[in-house]
Specification:
The protein is an alpha/beta fold. Among the domains are: 227 residues, FAD/NAD(P)-binding domain (3-Layer(bba) Sandwich), CATH 3.50.50; 134 residues, Glutaredoxin (3-Layer(aba) Sandwich), CATH 3.40.30. The strands form five sheets. Strands 1, 2, 8, 9, 10, 11, 17 and 18 form an eight-stranded mixed β-sheet that branches. An eight-stranded mixed β-sheet has the order 6-5-13-14-15-12-16-19. The radius of gyration is 25 Å and the shape is globular. Keywords: FAD, Flavoprotein, Oxidoreductase. This is FAD-binding domain-containing protein. GO terms for molecular function: FAD binding; oxidoreductase activity, acting on paired donors, with incorporation or reduction of molecular oxygen, NAD(P)H as one donor, and incorporation of one atom of oxygen. Its cofactor is FAD.
Length: 552
Amino acid sequence: MSPPELDILIIGGGPTGLTLALELASQTPIPSFRIIESSTTRSDKSRAFVLHPRTLELLARHGAPLIEKLVPLGVFNAAVRFYAKKAFVYEVGLGEGVMGTDTRYSQSLMISQAETEGVLEDALGRFGIAVERGVRAESLVQDDDGVTCILKTPCEGGGGGGGGDGSEREEEVRCKYVVGCDGAHSIVRKSAGMKFEGGVYPQDFILADVHMKWEQKACFSMFLGSGFLGVFPLNNGIFRLIVSRAQERGKEDDLTVQVFQDVVDEFVPGKTELYDPTWITRFRLHHRMVDCYRKGRCFVAGDAAHIHSPVGGQGMNTGMQDAVNLAWKLGSVLKGQSNDALLDSYDKERSKVGMKLLYTTDRLFEMMATSNPVVLWLRNTAVPWIIPWTMSNQKVKEKRFRFVSQLEIRYRESPIVGQASSWNGQLRGGDRAPDGELSGGDEKKWLLGLCSGVGFHLLLFSGIGDVGLSDQKLEEAGENFLKESNDAVKIHKILTLPNSATRGNGNTDAEGTIHELYGFKEPGYVLVRPDGYISFIGLLSTMDELKRWVKR
């Protein structure tokens, strides 16, 4: 076979594929890659409509302009309101520390998938890279050295909706790796022989994106009654409505805004008017997952690897985080910094995330979408008592919302994370690196804001009080590490007062709050992976263990 001419071929130009492409384009040097999409135009439908705090943290690694473009296109969800049998039950305000104090994003951003894709495409365009639309992967065959892909593109005036004779141009591409971000019918998954087991939920649903005159404030509202109604705020006065037991809500060819108005009148207290729908559709839901995320030189991510119910808005966020996890590993192997075995950790880390989400969303979905009259009665009777009782416990409430926000994802059992032998803090290798606000300088800074880009970052903590080290001592520790490290690592010193006064260091943890988050009273270090998770953690006195870890 001919040698690979391309490092990576990304098949699929949705949020997962675009995130992977952006992560690769941000590396130095940039791997050679192409991203193809069979659709000739980007969909204008909202589809997935939420970016959770953890995803926002990861996108922020690409600089403030990306987040600043996203935010005006959506609306932050300020609360979750529960109703049962048309009566208000409980409200959880999401500005009350529900997500904890270790993230700058305390709320999820409700935003159309079309807008998210547009911002990601613009960011990718700054690298001179564009999605190749109208390009379809016909077949893939992998061998020991690479993957041979046959791509087909409609000839000019000969297909793709152009009214021609349907003729296509064929192209053969050789690449080292292929990543399938191509959804539930993934050709990458099928060609690699990956299993995709699961089934179809028995219920069907109807959906509408519609303007809504409503006295209630714009927040996610869940209504329980003879079925389920979810109302989600989008932007510009538009709301997403999802209704269960759809077989009772209008015929296949007779789905109008009046059908949704009738549902709202049944479930929602007070007067509400729907008008000017932008999208109405009926749909069925599947729950499936691959047996492995990698087979040889083929990988799958997003809906190509896992599909589940929309409970909690987990699907798109999980796919985008699949991409972030895989991208830095592909880059490290392609640059010769790591051997191919590193890529096996993608399956080990992300498959457990996908499995837990599938199990959890299944259970919640069955409770919300049930049509069993006995279960419906029990649910609607119990909810007014259970939710206020559960949410009155701050720790339980925080745990539930942090799970949904994906801030609790961790990889402690991964073979590529660890901690010093003497370390006994609560944080471990594989945990998400907590965020916190720093003082010093004219602008507000956050710890994870220092960890921008897609490389490794070494955080050196001075320690607190009498045991704390000066800026100069931390500088020496960082220089010593770089002399023996094989990788380009950016070093950041986090000092408490008065240690920060030595050289006017701008990264000051004046109150020791961030030190406390990480479990450091004595001087310590944290090696943060390119995807914002802890690679290795320990006290500064065990720096030799970190050096050995990096070399290994």
